[in-house]
Design goal:
This protein has about 210 residues and is α/β, with parallel strands linked by helices. Helix content is about 45%, strand content about 15%. Strand 1, helix 1 and strand 2 form a beta-alpha-beta unit.
């Protein structure tokens, strides 16, 4: 029986829940930690969760986006983007490595890491940082991959774009199936895979 332990941050989200379902069906032991259980910006909170549930695989999924033009910058909002999207990824990874030096790391990025969006500069920049960190960690001898969703049917997106045609969006379960390929180490360490509705079937068939 598969005794591999997987910790997913941002456990309430649609992607986390879809991934949890797939992992559990495959026999993994999964903890999808919600924000109240694990605050990725709080070192003590991270340490408390990880020392009780030492993961073999860490999925850095917690994310934050509130679009705003830099011309009307809200510094608290800017700080939150980098604290959660970049800081949280580093803090959770660093603390987990302390407990398990053989940790496998899957970072959930965003297609916004390679695309420009006028009022999303904080999100785009923070997600681009995650992509570069992943590549550095691979060069540092770890197994790390970043899987980036394009436009995905999640609660977060629905709140940003309430009138969007939902049929044009990537399904969280389809995205989670690509993440599973990274969990099974089907991609070389350091890989960045961008998943969109248009290419997801091709990725799953590779």
């Amino acid at each position: 029986m598969n005794k591999t332990k997987v910790l997913i941050t941002g456990g309430n989200g649609g992607i986390a829940q879809a991934l949890k379902e797939l992992l559990e069906a495959d026999g993994y032991i999964v903890k999808a930690a919600t924000r109240t259980e694990l605050d990725v910006t709080d070192w003590e909170s991270i340490e408390n969760v990880i020392k009780e549930f030492v993961p073999d695989i860490l999925v850095n999924n917690a994310g934050y986006v509130v679009p705003k033009s830099v011309k009307e910058i809200d510094l608290e909002n800017t700080k939150k983007h980098f604290d959660i999207n970049v800081g949280g990824t580093f803090y959770c990874t660093g603390i987990a490595l302390k407990y398990n030096p053989n940790l496998q790391i899957i970072n959930i990025g965003s297609a916004a890491s390679v695309e420009t969006h006028a009022t999303w500069s904080e999100y785009c920049a923070s997600k681009a940082a995650v992509v570069m960190a992943t590549k550095c960690w691979a060069e540092d001898g770890l197994y790390a991959a970043v899987i980036s969703p394009g436009r995905t049917r999640t609660k977060m997106r629905k709140s940003l774009f309430p009138d969007e045609d939902q049929s044009t969006l990537l399904e969280p379960m389809d995205f989670a199936k690509v993440v599973m390929k990274a969990i099974r180490k089907e991609y070389p360490s350091g890989t960045h895979v961008i998943v969109r509705k248009q290419n997801v079937q091709q990725l799953l068939n590779e």
